[in-house]
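Illustration 12: Sigma-70 family RNA polymerase sigma factor.
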Amino acid sequence: MPPEPRPSSSFAIEVPRALLDRARAGERAAFEQVYRWFERPVYTLALRICGDREEASEVLQDTMLKVIDRIGHFRGDSPFWGWLRQIAVNEALMRLRKAKQQPEAHDPLLDEREDDRAPPPPAAADAAALQRALAVLHPTTRSVLWLYHAEGYTHEEIAALMERTTSFSKSQLARGTRRLRALLEPDPRLMEESAHA
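Figure caption equivalent — predicted structure in C-alpha cell form:
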C-alpha cells in the first residue's frame, strides 16, 4: 500500500525572489505584499492551535514582526513559506505553553478504539461543524491534529516542535481523531428515534 500523500499546506505560496530581495532591502511595499499573502494562513493556524481569536491575532502580529526582523537571515535553501510557517508555528505553540492550560479531563468517548491514522470523518466537510468540534478539543490535541492533517507535519516534526515524544504526537492524534468522530458523526440511536417520530 503506497504511503498516504501529505496534505498541501495553506502556506504553500511561492514568493518571487525579486519580492524577497525587496523585502530584505527594507521596502515597505514588499513587506505589505508578504503580509497580505500570508495573513490568512498564519491567522488560521494560530486560531486552530490557540483556539482564541485574540490570541490568533497576537500570533499573526508577532509572526510578521519576526519575519520583518529576521528576513535578512533567510538563506533561501528551503521555500520561504516553510520558513515563515515555522515562525508562525513556534509563536502559536509558545503562546499555548504560556497559557498553562489545565490537564485534559478524561473523556469516556476516547476509550473506543479506532484507526488512529484515519482522516477526520466525512462530516468534517462542514466547516462550521468542524470549527465547533475543534473548539471543544484540548488545545494540545487540537494543535497536533491541525499540524498533522492540515499542515502535513510528521509525528517526528510535531514531537520536536512541542518538545515531546513521537508517541505523544501519535497518541494525541488518535485521541483527537476519536473525539472528532464522536462529535461529528451523528448518533445512530438519535437518527433512528427521529425517523420514527
